[in-house]
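Write out the 3D structure for:
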Amino acid sequence: MAVGARVVVGVSGSPASLAALRVAVEEARGAGRVLVAVIAWEPPEGEGLYARRPDRAWAGHWESEARGRLDRAFDDVFAGAPLGVVVERWVVRGSAGRAVCDLAESAEDLVVLGRGRGWGRARRYVQGRAGCRVMVVPGPVVPRGVRRALRKVRAEDFSPLCS
């Protein structure tokens, strides 16, 4: 292993990206590498429209939202910071695929991405352009009927006082 080789993981908050985060931490811990967790964001209206009417407060809001999703991902998977691994958290403005490729700068790095309902375009971009190994982790499989039922769940369904 080359000195400075890292494990770069793309995080979006989706179940597949949480599975990738879990695997990436194990890979980093086992190899003694630094874990680089990256979440990318773009203005919801797109960069073209944002350029016409830039609003730093609006951009700051979306950057803060992305940072919160990255922090929640670590909280959901590890209840905070994972033990036994050095973690760098990056919030990058731009496309997800490009952000991951830019951070995986060494041929000795390892990129870990989740395969699920998100990251499809980013995953294809990274697999086609990364100058290092890419590991794709499948997300949890939720049967279609269960997904449909979960969309109809309300907060009151979990409250013991409403029974």
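The longest strand covers residues 34-41.
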